[in-house]
Amino acid sequence: MQSPSRRTFLATGALAAAGLLAACTSSGGKSGGAGGSDAGGRTTKADPDLPLRTKAVAATDALLAQYAPFTGAGGAPGSPVAQLHAEVLTQRAALAAGLPTGTASPSGASSSGAASPSGTASPSGAPSAPGAPAGWAPLAAAEWSTAQARLTDLAAASPELARLLASVSAAGALHAVELGDQAPLAPTAAPSANPSPSATGSPSAGGSPSGAASSNTMSAGAVTALQAALAAEHSAVYAFGVIGARIAPGPKRDDARACYAAHQARRDAWQQLLAGAGATPTPAAPGYELPFAVPDPTAAARLAGEIEIRLTAVYADLVAAGSGSLRLDAATALRTCTLQANHWGAAPGALPGLPAQAAATTGTTGATASPPVSPSASR
User: Fold this and answer.
1) Is the separation of the CB atoms in 364 and 25 below 8 Å?
2) Quick one: where's region Disordered (predicted)?
C-alpha cells in the first residue's frame, strides 16, 4: 500500500465528483405505457419499459408478501425487518413510477414508513448476519433471489430503468446479508483479460469486472462513463492505502487490504477495456486531498464507507451508459460497493447510487457520467 505521506486524496476530484454523478430524475411525462393519442390527436409512443416495470413491481409485491408475517399485526414498527420493509416500499414506489393507475401503490402492504432512498455515511441500523434469527432465512433467500433476477432484465431496459434495477438489486443483496444470508458476500472473481461481445447468465457474486464487455463496440457515452469509473478507482486505490496504514494489524486491516486489491483489480480491468476501445485510459492524478483528517482507525473506517458510497453513484452511471456485459459488470460493481459501504459502517439507503429525488418522483434518472474534476498537485 502507498504511504499517505506521498499524496493526498482529492475530495473535489475524481471520487468526490462521483457523489454528484448520479443523475437527476427525468420522468419526461411518461404515462402508463401503451401508445395512443394525446389531447391534440397526435399519436403517442408506447413506453418500451412498461413490461419490465410491470414485472419488477410484481416481483416486489411478491417480496413484500414475504415480509407480511414480520410486519403485520404485532410486528414492531422499529424492528430491523420493519426498516428493511420500509426500504422495499420505497423501491416499489420508484419502480412503479409511470405505470397505470392502480399499480402505483402496493396491494396488501402498508405504504407508511418509507425509507430515505439516498445513501449516507451514517451508521446503518440494520442487523448484522451473525445475530440474524433463523426465522429470517426464507426472507433473506427471497431478497437474494429477487435481487439476482432483477439483473436478467438489464440488457432490455432503457438506461434509466437499468440504473434503477441495478440499484434496487444492490439494495436487495444487502438486505439478504442483513437478514443472515452470506451468499452475496462470496469472494470476488478475478477479472478476465479476454472480453466477449455480450453478457449471458447471471453476474458473478464478486465485484471485479468480468471483462466480458466488447471494448470494440463501446459507445462514446460508455467510454466517458468508464473513464469516470477508472478515475474514481484510481482515487479509491490511493485512499485504501491510507486506510490500511491507519488501522492496526488484525481483521480490519485485512479487510482494508482486500478492498485495496479489489479496487486495483477493477482499475486494471477498466484500463484494459478502454485501451481495447482505442481510448487512452485516464491516468492516476499527481495529487489527492483527503475529504477529512484520518488520524486513527475510526476515521479510517469512516473514509472507507465514504469512498464506497460515492462509488455507488459512479457505477449507477456506468450501468446507464453501458450495454451488454459492461452494464452487467457495472451492476455487479455497484452491488459490491453497496455491500462494502455497509461493512464499513455507512448506510447505502433504499436506492444505492441514486439521489434522493429519484425515488421521490419517478425513480428514473437522466444525467450522464461526467469526467472527474482535475486533482490538485501533490503536496
Assistant:
1) yes
2) 26-52, 99-134, 185-216, 355-379
Q: How many domains does the chain have?
A: 1
Whether residue 143 contacts residue 172, with contact meaning beta carbons closer than 8 Å, is answered with yes
| pLDDT single digits (tens) 120-145 | 444 333 334 455 676 899 999 999 99
Beta bridge partners of 36: 44
Cβ atoms within 10 Å, residue 277: 20
Within 10 angstroms of residue 49's Cβ, the number of other Cβ atoms is 23
The DSSP bridge pattern shows strands 43-44 and 36-37 to be antiparallel
| Structural domain harbouring 217 | 14-33+47-360
- Bridge partners of residue 44, in order along the sequence: 36
For residue 186, what pLDDT is reported? 85
For residues 322 and 158, what is the distance between their CA atoms, to the nearest angstrom?
A: 11
DSSP labels, 150-199: HGGGTTTS-HHHHHHHHHHHHHHHHHHHHTT--GGGPPPPPPPSS--S--
Query: Residue 1: how many CB atoms within 10 A of its CB?
Result: 16
Whether 100 maps to a domain, the answer reads yes
CATH code of residue 214: 1.20.1260.10
Question: Residue 347 pairs with which residues in a beta bridge?
Answer: 120
**Side chain identity at residue 288, one-letter code:** Y
Identify the CA nearest to 141 among candidates 66, 55, 65. 66
- 343, 243 Cβ separation under 8 angstroms: no
For 314-361, how does the pLDDT look when each residue is reduced to its tens digit (9 = 90+)? 999 999 999 999 999 999 999 999 999 999 999 999 999 998 644 443
Q: Which cell is 91 given? A: 423501491
pTM of the predicted protein model: 0.78
